[in-house]
Amino acid sequence: MWNDRTGCPDSSANANGWPERRVGIPRPSGPLRVKMKVCLVGDHTTRKTDLIRPYVQDNFDDKYVQTLGTKVSKKELQVPNPLDGSIFLDMTIWDIVGRREFRTLTRDAYYFGARGVLGVCDIRRPETVTQLNDWIMDVQSVCGRIPLVILAIRRGSHKRHPDGEEATRLLASFYHAPCFFVSLRRHANVEPAILVLALLILWDRFGRF
Fold first, then answer.
1. 32-206 has which fold?
2. What is the pLDDT of residues 73-96, one digit of tens each?
3. What is the domain partition of the chain in residue ranges?
């Protein structure tokens, strides 16, 4: 089923945003705190760093980023625990800087330990959707099939780009990934996309307990 708001496949969830099929969630003695690493990937021309900047805390300045090859930011979230209380999330977002082909030799170091992926493309340029698929496959070659959420950038709310939109929907459908159409100017849907990814990661992790 397609979500009318995001334009991509939607998954069933209960009132708290959790998927209905939940098993094995640990019952903590106190507040449950979970750490998770997320990779932010996509073509360097999509301005993905600017897209999430208002929602994260920068840990490194730009000069250090040039040496490290990735920009690491922090995002703190709090979500309801289906059993009791709340779950506090410490998310580190690794924004992989530069062209994908320049990161091939060091990709294991960048991707190792990632629990989820934020993938960014620009629907004005369908080639960025193809490039995003390459990025996703790179991450999966190291981490396996971890949770994925796609952010598809629109430039102007009234302009339609059917080729890019269709390519993005096909990519999201192939990976069974939620997709959110976002704007660099208004940044609508960025925060919900990050929250959905966090919930998917929690579901993925708790399912293994």
1. Rossmann fold (3.40.50)
2. 889 998 887 777 788 999 999 988
3. 32-206
